[in-house]
């Protein structure tokens, strides 16, 4: 039994213990800590037609996600200064249904803004080593990173990095633009591997907490393991889509699967699973990156011009549980990959990610045996474009609690606007 008072867990006691308070029996369903997704593109302000705080955090509740962290793009303005962060904070008013933190952005020339963003409470910083997809968030160079990593090391804040060092070879665009295999070949593992190697080098040089986002190349697993073995402050995530889908199964023209780095072959993805299960990969995050249907080029199927991003925030839990069960994973594994370890990255391990005394009473009640087919009409994101539509998933989110309050009871949202801004300060 979990005892809750004033939004916190006051104790965890054996079932059947006499208590002088109302009791909610979840019966044979699983009670898990609320999910934490530290890799979400909410896109507000500026691109609210892509997604927004209202739709993103509602969808999160329906998926058992109680805390998320917003990326510094693709909003307009991007979160690269205190003034821009203030605009984003203002945009949350009246439409924040989960707890939410923010990453600052590292772009060329904004090293001077880092201390101010830290003082304002960002949880860390994100940089791209290749074009981000929008021109107002240009990629950082090695020299840019060398300027900011000593600052982050001093404050103990993580640098999150999109690891691809790209070349200018666009010859693949001369071929079949609808071919997924052409798109896959256009972003080879070597781009990731070189970028990961650079970040391991810089991590060791500056002793700066460094986090590799959405790892897709299994070739980088061995050097990451070696870096961790010598005690470097290096962490790694992968995404649900790299663990659920395989390149061999993606047909030409299916641009709903386009993301960067790309979904790779089954043999590669099997190695990602092994690295996750052995702890080399720390956790799984969605990289929820939605866009309007026209930007996904669903009609033309053109991978060269389609927006690269997969919207999956609401489905994070059942997607991973469906795939994990096939590999013998357990509910404690799920809680570690979706709650406990993400809480460490965002500096909230003292209050979130576990069902334990003193922690926030954020819970998800999961029917682990029930399955369902994903349909477009059940999706609460701004747009219902998703590669998961039509998939049979296992694990139904029945209830979501935020700080002890029942905020979602399938299919109804009960209490909205209960979310708070989380900071490092």
TrEMBL record:
Q: How does it assemble?
A: Homotetramer.
| Gene this chain is encoded by | allB
Any idea what this protein is called? allantoinase
Q: Which UniProt keywords apply?
A: Hydrolase, Metal-binding, Zinc
Say which family it is in.
Belongs to the metallo-dependent hydrolases superfamily. Allantoinase family. Belongs to the metallo-dependent hydrolases superfamily. DHOase family. Class I DHOase subfamily.
Q: Pfam families, alphabetically?
A: Amidohydro_1
Instruction: Quote the pathway field.
Output: Nitrogen metabolism; (S)-allantoin degradation; allantoate from (S)-allantoin: step 1/1
User: Where does the UniProt annotation place the signal sequence?
Assistant: none
NCBIfam families, alphabetized: allantoinase
Explain the purpose of this protein. Catalyzes the reversible cyclization of carbamoyl aspartate to dihydroorotate.
């Amino acid at each position: 039994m979990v005892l809750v008072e004033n939004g916190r867990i006051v104790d965890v006691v054996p079932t059947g213990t006499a208590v002088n308070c109302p009791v909610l029996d979840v019966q044979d369903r699983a009670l898990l800590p609320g999910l934490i997704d530290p890799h979400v593109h909410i896109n507000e302000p500026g691109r609210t037609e892509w997604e927004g705080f209202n739709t993103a955090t509602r969808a999160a509740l329906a998926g058992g996600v109680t805390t998320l962290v917003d990326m510094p793009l693709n909003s307009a303005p991007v979160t690269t200064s205190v003034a821009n962060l203030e605009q984003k904070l203002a945009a949350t008013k009246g439409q924040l249904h989960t707890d939410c933190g923010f990453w600052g952005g590292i772009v060329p020339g904004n090293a001077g803004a880092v201390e101010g963003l830290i003082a304002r409470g960002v949880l860390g910083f994100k940089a791209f080593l290749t074009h981000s997809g929008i021109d107002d968030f240009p990629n950082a160079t090695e020299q840019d990173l060398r300027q900011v990593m000593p600052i982050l090391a001093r404050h103990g804040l993580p640098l999150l990095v999109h690891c691809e060092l790209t070349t200018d070879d666009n010859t693949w665009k001369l071929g079949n633009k609808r071919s997924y295999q052409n798109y896959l070949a256009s972003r080879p593992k070597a781009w990731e591997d070189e970028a990961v190697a650079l970040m391991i080098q810089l991590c060791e040089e500056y002793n700066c907490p460094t986090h590799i986002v959405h790892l897709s190349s299994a070739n980088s697993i061995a050097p990451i393991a070696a870096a961790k073995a010598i005690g470097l402050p290096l962490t790694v995530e992968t995404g649900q889509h790299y663990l659920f889908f395989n390149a061999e199964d993606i047909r030409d023209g299916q641009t709903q699967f386009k993301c960067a780095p790309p979904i790779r072959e089954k043999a590669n993805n099997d190695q990602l699973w092994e690295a996750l299960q052995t702890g080399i990969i720390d956790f799984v995050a969605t990289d929820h990156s939605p866009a309007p249907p026209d930007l996904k080029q669903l009609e033309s199927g053109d991978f060269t011009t389609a927006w690269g991003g997969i919207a999956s925030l609401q489905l994070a839990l059942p997607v991973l549980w469906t795939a994990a069960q096939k590999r013998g994973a357990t509910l404690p594994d799920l809680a570690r990959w979706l709650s406990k370890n993400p809480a460490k990255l965002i500096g909230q391990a003292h209050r979130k990610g576990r069902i334990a005394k003193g922690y926030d009473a954020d819970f998800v009640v999961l029917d682990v045996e029930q399955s369902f087919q994903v349909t477009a009409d059940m999706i609460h994101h701004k747009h219902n474009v998703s590669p998961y539509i039509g998939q049979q998933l296992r694990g139904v989110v029945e209830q979501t609690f935020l700080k002890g309050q029942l905020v979602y009871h399938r299919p109804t949202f009960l209490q909205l606007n209960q979310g708070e801004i989380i900071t490092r300060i």
